[in-house]
Write a structure and sequence with these properties.
Blueprint (H helix, E strand, L loop, with lengths): L3 H6 L21 H5 L4 H4 L3 H9 L9 E3 L13 E4 L5 E4 L7 H15 L4 E7 L1 H9 L7 H8 L4 H20 L3 E5 L8 H20 L5 E4 L7 H6 L4 E3 L6 H7 L4 E3 L11 H15 L4 E3 L12 H12 L4
Helix pairs in contact: 4-5, 5-8, 6-8, 12-13
Length: 321
């Protein structure tokens, strides 16, 4: 079996590999047809849809990993909350019957693992701060209430939420995923002082427990250059960089780190020659690292043209080390 992304994440291989965060998304031509006007939450209740969406990118190009089509907010359902994805994301207490999203997800992952035995299967979870922000701030606007709750010591919900996220990751690992990607996407909005005083212990506990599940962990946070020395100390297996810092500069902070990234997703409208040049530039730097997994510096934008991702994928796979 190939599973190059898994092997690179484990430090066992230094080779060309590529996948894209949010690669099973709305930018794909057939996404709307599969969705058929259903609310997003309904898609997550159907194992056939989970399998079909996870596999959809392979109709258009050939990444080295399958990303499970799921959502980082599913742990809220086990805590008696409902999540609405229409007209902005909101998390609210519910009196209705809780749907067991996890049982559906397990079936989907097992089928995907069988269908794509040669590909790395990537499960996804949200980080504590990011996931909590959707409860208090709908994941936007500076995360003022989220920061206020954490700084005031009101961490009861956060502690319960962390345990549910860890359980969410465990279910995915037991069902067949090879790697867990942690999306602590909005952590970069906090200051270094806030991180040190209120989040460092939380993040360390969380990552230690995710790593204890026995699968490599990729940690991603956008706009977090001021926190990188702290994130290195969390010891994820792979650190996924956004597009703002050159790989060679991060290497100076951590010579032995395995790095994922980091093409600016907002360059995907660029001309083909420029996109090839940018891809090769990043691969040149990645080739000098202990391990490098090519990716964007954030998720695929919904306006992206899949042909551009196919071009990048081909350029990575044809890169001459």
């Amino acid at each position: 079996m190939n599973k190059k992304v898994l092997k690179i994440a484990m430090g066992e291989l230094n080779d060309n590999a590529v996948w894209f965060m949010r690669q099973a998304g709305r930018y794909l031509p057939d996404y709307a047809a599969i969705k058929k006007g259903r609310p997003f939450s309904e898609l997550l209740k159907d194992p056939n849809t989970i399998v079909e969406m996870s596999a959809l990118p392979f109709k258009y190009y050939n990444p080295d990993a399958v990303v499970i089509f799921t959502d980082i907010l599913l742990p809220y359902a086990r805590m008696g909350y409902s999540v609405s994805y229409e007209n902005g994301i909101s998390v609210n207490k519910t009196e209705s019957e809780v749907f067991d999203y996890y049982s559906v997800l397990v079936e989907g992952i097992r089928r995907i693992s069988t269908d794509f035995a040669d590909k790395t299967i990537i499960g996804v979870v949200g980080g504590p701060f990011t996931t909590l922000s959707y409860l208090y701030d709908r994941g936007r606007d500076g995360y003022a209430r989220t920061k206020e709750k954490i700084s005031s010591g009101e961490t009861g919900i956060l502690n319960d939420l962390m345990e549910e996220i860890i359980e969410f990751a465990e279910i995915q690992t037991r069902s067949g995923v090879d790697v867990i990607q942690v999306f602590e996407s909005w952590l970069g909005t906090v200051s270094e002082n806030f991180y040190e005083n209120h989040l460092e212990k939380i993040e360390r506990y969380f990552i230690e427990n995710i790593r204890d599940l026995g699968k490599p962990v990729i940690f991603f946070s956008e706009g977090s250059s001021h926190l990188y020395r702290h994130l290195i100390n969390l010891k994820p297996d792979v650190i996924s960089l956004d597009w703002r810092l050159e790989l060679r500069e991060f290497k100076k902070m951590c010579y032995d780190c395995i790095i994922q990234g980091n093409l600016d997703p907002y360059l995907l409208n660029s001309g083909d020659d420029y996109l090839r040049k940018e891809t090769r530039r990043i691969m040149d730097q990645g080739a000098k690292l202990k391990g490098h997994i090519f990716n964007l510096g954030h998720g695929v934008p919904q306006w992206a043209d899949y042909k551009k991702l196919a071009l990048v994928e081909s350029e990575v796979h044809n890169y001459d080390r």
